[in-house]
Amino acid sequence: MNTDILEREVQYLKGVGPKRADAWAEAHGVRTVHDMLHFYPRRYLDRSTTTGVRDLREGDAATVMGTVQSGNVVPGKSNKRFELILEDAEGQRMKGVWFQGLWWIRNTFEVGERVALHGTVQKYGRWFSMTHPDFDRLSDEAAALDTGRIVGLYPGGQAMEAVGLTSRSIRRIIYRFFKEHGLKLGEPLPDWMTEQYGLMEGRVALRAIHFPKSQEERAQAVQRLKFEELFYIQLLLAITRHERQEIAGPTFDPPGSLTTQFATDVLPFELTEAQKRAVREIVADTQTGIQMNRLVQGDVGSGKTVVAVLAILQAYDSGYQSAFMAPTEILAEQHANSLAEYLAPLDLQPTLLTGSQSKTEREAALASVAEGATPVAVGTHALIQDNVAFDRLGLAVVDEQHRFGVMQRAEMFEKGDRPHMLLMTATPIPRSLAMTLYGDLDVSKIDEMPAGRKPVTTVMRREKQRDDVYAFIRERLQAGEQAYVVYPLVEESEKLDLKDAESGYATLQAQFPDFNVGLVHGRMASDEKDRTMRAFKAGELDILVSTTVIEVGVDVPGATIMLIEHAERFGLSQLHQLRGRVGRSDQQSYCILMAGYKQSAEAKQRLAAMTRTTDGFEISEEDLRIRGAGDFFGTRQSGMPELKLADITEDTDALETARNAATALITRDPELSDEAHAALRTYFDRYYADQSMGFLRVG
Ligand code: ADP
Ligand code: MG
């Protein structure tokens, strides 16, 4: 394909020039023809999508087209407003009302011009009206619409308008471009793909999204372009996945005597179906001779550790050691303890490796790892330090994998001969997102809780109920249970938060004089923090007050109460993680959300979701819905290519299709060296391959 035309700068196109080009680039990042062609209308107007005033219904979102009759600033009870009176083709009138920006809006409209208002219909007396409607001033559109055409309206803004880049002029520029150069636009996708997935030709789709002849044609164009957006991302993932599949890994034997003995004699419970499935998948992966990269995704408390233990035993039965890496010392110790319990009946012992061990402890640990005396080394980052040498490392388990970077995992690789990687995460991610975020990994999902768990009871309480809340906590403490009290951490004001947590700590000490109250916060030295956490774990403290430093994965089964102060300030997934600290035994646990009276709409939704469900996957779907994909990715996954049409949360089917297409392509032609894929390769390399690797961090 002729990529030169795509890379041409828009300023050299007819009707643009340097001033407009600057504004376009500044406002919307449009610099090249490629950018311009993918600068899509934000809305379309045609007769079928507009409503006559006569047919308006209160509460509906509608678009009304009409002629400006008058526009006046009128005094109101409390403040002034601007009222625009619009008359539609049938002579029916309605109002557009603005309370803000009166003087600017007053100078925007001219009497007699055609305008389209978009907004929610309200009714006051006999007048239909819209408050602060989105609007478009129609010039040549009006005539076009009268002849039944569909007209695209583009994103604008004051800077764009200042240089005359209105919907109208943008349409002209693009129209002219298609007339002169349209035929030079090539097709990046191979024929077999457009045929197999019933996709509109690329050039046709680009033209149709700007100038659709019908709503059907527009829908087809959107489908094709949406597919393409998702496809390139999936291709990136498919390539990574493919490259990984070339990497040889240790070949394990089928589960042997240790595994059997463990399953029949040691395991105090029956595995859930989801756990069994994960185990089967791991067993299958590790026998192929190809290095495994599997993510075990399961909500807090779903029992991921046992799955890892079974993999560790299979490795040891096959003559390989394992490494088990956790993000903090506390977690590492906790894992070492539970592994010790699991392995003792088999006469095996894990070895703990942390930064805070004494020199002699450490030397003994290093020796047992190096000699192969231990089946598994459990530790923090200390595991990947230079002086740690395994006799024969075959499996690396990484708990809370999102806390580690790729580099640390790469170093794990170097410790053995490309050990199998078993990554574990308790951050539930909606399926659609998982396909993208973890698209280069194989995923086992543990979507079932062990039998007999009591879901945590979650309630919202207000300040005036505080006494009742304390009375309830006192009752539980008297029964020998423990409580967490968590204060939010707002990044801008670490000091203030500390004050919050510290004064909360003082209050609780005063309120609960016969109980032991401890405090941990982010500014404490880590050994002091650890000491307090350990005391809580050991039951020496009854209440633990903290800012959000309590670690993901910390397991204190005796804790049954999670009191979250200023709950409206926490994100949904954070609230869910915090709630996961309780409900870790067969005792009934409680999560109490202390919420302020002032809550944003989103905060209300978050708190409502928390009281409605304890299902982590449902929570994460809800979180994604509330925050939108951009934000969900934004913080954790910058570098994700921009999606203009596709919505990762909604377009699950399209995502699946794109994924299948990418996999099919890479299976056929892994290097994209086939002549039929040359155009795709050029396009992909230029627009995706280089710049998008950032978001693959997770893999
Ligand atoms: P997580 O997935 O959060 O890491 P853990 O592996 O720590 O969860 O397991 C949580 C608790 O559930 C542990 O005490 C573990 O022994 C227990 N457990 C795991 N699987 C089962 C099961 N199938 N039936 C009953 N209890 C289980
Ligand atoms: Mg865990």
UniProtKB/TrEMBL annotation:
Presence of the UniProt keyword Nucleotide-binding in the record: yes
Catalytic activity: ATP + H2O = ADP + phosphate + H(+); Couples ATP hydrolysis with the unwinding of duplex DNA by translocating in the 3'-5' direction
Keyword set, alphabetical order: ATP-binding, DNA damage, DNA recombination, DNA repair, DNA-binding, Helicase, Hydrolase, Isomerase, Nucleotide-binding
Helicase C-terminal domain span: 465-625
PROSITE patterns, alphabetized: HELICASE_ATP_BIND_1 (PS51192), HELICASE_CTER (PS51194)
One GO molecular-function entry: ATP hydrolysis activity
Residue span, Helicase ATP-binding domain: 285-446
EC primary class: isomerase
EC number(s) from the headed UniProt entry: 5.6.2.4
SMART domains, per database record: DEXDc, HELICc
UniProt keyword annotation of Chloroplast present: no
GO terms for biological process, alphabetical: DNA recombination; DNA repair
Gene3D superfamilies (alphabetical): Nucleic acid-binding proteins (2.40.50.140), P-loop containing nucleotide triphosphate hydrolases (3.40.50.300)
Function comment: Plays a critical role in recombination and DNA repair. Helps process Holliday junction intermediates to mature products by catalyzing branch migration. Has replication fork regression activity, unwinds stalled or blocked replication forks to make a HJ that can be resolved. Has a DNA unwinding activity characteristic of a DNA helicase with 3'-5' polarity.
Family assignment from sequence similarity: Belongs to the helicase family. RecG subfamily.
Full protein name: ATP-dependent DNA helicase RecG
Organism per entry: Longimonas halophila
